[in-house]
Amino acid sequence: MAKPPQFVMLAFDGSKNVAFWEASRQFAKENNVKFTYFASGVYFLTQADAQQYLEPKRGRGKSAIGFGGTVADMKDRLHQMKLAMEEGHEIASHANGHFDGSKYTADEWNSEFDQFTQIMSTVWDRYRLPNEPAGWKAYFKNEILGFRAPLLGVGNGLYDALRNHKFRYDTSRVKDMSYWPKKINNIWSFPLAQLTISGSGKKTLSMDYNFYYTQSGGREGPPELFPEYEREMYDTYMAYFNFNYHGNRAPVHIGHHFSLWNGGAYWKAMQRFAAEVSKKEDVICGTYKDLLKFVSETQAHIAEFDAGHSDRAGELTEEELQELKSQPREPACAHDEE
């Protein structure tokens, strides 16, 4: 059987920072890359409207990442999201207040998803902004197919709510590098990867914040080390890519934020990585909807794809996995960089 294409999934959590919207869109144009943006609903409520959001366990106006600023800020942010959608990027859900939802009930997750839909579908009307794009409301009511939980906080109540809101895939779990997607509770699981950082041998996830935490303790490190941080991420991502590309072609999952931690080392590394692999034969740097379409159409062959590579050297030992699980998965509060 012919090898499948090598999907490389490049995604951002957050969606607040207008300059980062612009920079990511420009990079994508220049490198034939499509991003998936996991948007946080609170960034589409102004600070003045914070009380419109009801966090399921903490009450009204509570958000770990703040809100969307002024109406003028909102106009600029919406313009960038509109352009991204027109350019073929995907918008997915990162819920709202960015708290750990691992203890949410199904009803509480239902509230989060209902509020996300309401916030996003009515944002142009709420702020009386002109030129709402055709199909905007329908997109946010019917075409948000994917989800990543804040802090990767997955609990027992999540999957009932995902099915109830017709989500098709979730990206909140963690697996080994060569994991081929499978359905969990009838939802496709597209997990982040367990990685070993090239050079240091430390364990982390395929997400920028986890490199930031592992390399410098979740705070800015010495500027003289920024190039080393960038190199380590780039080398690690390339090792991850090559392990899969020359193996069973399991999708590569990279998750970043609208943040320039450690002097922008991780955004620079992501760009270097994406620019290089996007030019390789059989590589698709597409959206999660692209991957969803592929696995849905080839579901009967996924076991064969997986069997094409029996070397499981990318897996961690149980001790290493427990060490990794003790790390923070994402910033509890990324302030306004997202």
Unreliable segments (pLDDT under 50, ≥5 consecutive)? 310-314, 332-336
Number of strands: 14
SSE string, helices as H and strands as E: EHEEEHEHHHEHEEEEEEHHEHEHHH
How far apart the termini lie comes to 42 Å
User: How would the global form be characterised?
Assistant: globular
Give the integer mean of the pLDDT values.
93
Largest sheet: 5 strands, parallel
Given the helix and strand composition, which structural class is it?
A: alpha/beta
What is the overall number of helices? 12
Total discrete domains: 2
Rg from C-alpha positions?
A: 19 Å
What is the helical fraction, as a range of percent? Answer: 25-40%
Residue share in β-strands:
5-15%
How would you describe the overall organization of this protein?
The chain is an alpha/beta fold. Mean pLDDT is about 95; it is low at about 310-315 and about 330-335. The strands form 4 sheets. Strands 1, 2, 5, 13 and 14 form a 5-stranded parallel beta sheet that branches. It has a 4-stranded mixed beta sheet with strand order 6-7-10-9. It contains 12 helices and 14 strands. The protein has helices at about 20-30, 70-85, 105-120, 125, 135-140, 160-165, 210-215, 225-245, 260-275, 290-295, 300-305, 320-325, and strands spanning about 5-15, 35-40, 55, 60, 90-95, 145, 170, 175, 180-185, 185-190, 190-195, 205, 250-255, 285. It has 2 domains: about 1-10 and about 190-325, no CATH class; about 35-170, no CATH class. Helix 7 crosses helix 9 (about 260-275). Strand 9 (about 180-185) and strand 10 (about 185-190) form a beta hairpin.
